[in-house]
C-alpha cells in the first residue's frame, strides 16, 4: 500500500521527473504555472506518495491571490499539478492525495485548472464562482474550478501570485 507523506520528503529531482512524464517538458508555459509565477510551493499543503520508497505521485499547492478591478487582493491556494505515475494511475492515489490536502486546507479557499469530471465529481470543485475571474493565459472556462469556504467571493478579478500577506475575502 503506497504511503502519503509531506512533499518535502521527496527528492526535488524525482518530483521534476514525475511532472515531466505526466505533463511534458514544456509544462512550464501553462497558464497554471503563470498564475503562481515566482512562488514556492506550500509545505503544509503539498504531498507525495511513495511505493516501497519510490516516488509515484505528487500534489503541490501554491499561494496565489485574486485581485479585483478596484485593486483589492484576496488570498487563494492554487492546487496542482496533481500527477500520478502511469504505472499507478486509477488506483486511488490521486484521490488519497487530494483528500489529504483538503483535510489540511479545510479553512482555505482553493482554485485549480483541471477536469471537472474528476475534481467536481469527487471533491466538489465548481466553476460557479470563477466565470468572471481572469487568468494570465488561455483557459477553458469549465476547467477553472474553485472550492470556497463561503459565497462572498468577488465576481471579477485577476488570478496571480500572492506577494503579500492578505486578509481573507468575505
Ligand atoms: C488525473 C490523475 C491525477 C487521477 O489520479 P488517479 O490516482 O489516476 O485516479 P484515482 O484513482 O484517484 O481516481 C480514479 C477515478 O477517477 C477517474 N479519473 C481519473 N482521471 C480522470 C480525468 N482526468 N477525468 C475524469 N475522470 C478521471 C477514473 O475514471 C476513476 O473513476 P472510476 O472510479 O469511476 O473508475 C492521474 O491519473 C494523473 O496524474 N494523470 C496525468 C496527469 C493529469 O492529468 N493530472 C491532472 C491535471 S492537474
SSE topology sketch:
Blueprint: E1 3-6, H1 12-23, H2 31-35, E2 47-51, E3 54-67, E4 73-84, H3 93-104, E5 110-113, H4 116-123, E6 133-134, E7 144-147, E8 157-161
Parallel strand pairs: 4-5, 6-8
Antiparallel strand pairs: 1-2, 2-3, 3-4, 3-8, 5-7
Characteristics:
170 residues, alpha+beta, Aminopeptidase, 4 helices, 22% helix, binds coenzyme A
Structure description:
With 170 residues, the chain is of the alpha+beta class. It has a single domain (3-161), classed as Gcn5-related N-acetyltransferase (GNAT) (Aminopeptidase), CATH 3.40.630.30. It is 22% helix and 29% strand. Strands 1, 2, 3, 4, 5, 6, 7 and 8 form an eight-stranded mixed sheet that branches. Strand 3 and strand 4 (73-84) form a beta hairpin. It starts with a strand and ends in a 9-residue tail after the last strand. Residues 22, 80-84, 89-95, 114-115, 117-118 line the site of coenzyme A (COA). Residues 22, 80-84, 89-95, 114-115, 117-118 line the site of coenzyme A.
Amino acid at each position: 500500500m503506497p504511503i502519503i507523506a509531506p512533499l518535502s520528503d521527496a527528492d526535488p529531482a524525482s518530483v521534476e521527473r514525475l511532472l515531466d512524464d505526466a505533463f511534458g517538458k514544456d509544462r512550464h508555459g501553462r497558464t497554471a504555472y503563470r498564475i503562481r509565477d515566482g512562488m514556492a510551493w506550500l509545505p503544509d499543503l503539498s504531498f507525495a506518495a511513495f511505493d516501497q520508497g519510490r516516488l509515484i505521485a505528487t500534489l503541490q499547492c501554491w499561494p496565489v491571490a485574486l485581485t479585483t478591478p478596484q485593486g483589492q487582493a484576496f488570498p487563494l491556494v492554487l492546487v496542482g499539478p496533481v500527477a500520478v505515475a502511469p504505472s499507478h494511475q486509477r488506483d486511488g492515489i490521486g484521490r488519497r492525495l487530494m483528500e489529504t490536502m483538503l483535510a489540511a486546507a479545510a479553512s482555505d479557499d482553493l482554485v485549480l485548472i483541471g477536469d471537472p469530471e474528476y475534481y467536481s465529481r469527487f471533491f466538489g470543485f465548481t466553476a460557479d464562482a470563477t466565470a468572471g475571474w481572469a487568468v494570465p493565459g488561455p483557459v477553458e472556462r469549465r476547467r477553472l474550478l474553485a472550492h470556497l469556504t463561503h459565497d462572498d467571493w468577488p465576481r471579477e478579478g485577476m488570478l496571480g501570485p500572492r506577494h503579500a500577506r492578505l486578509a481573507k475575502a468575505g
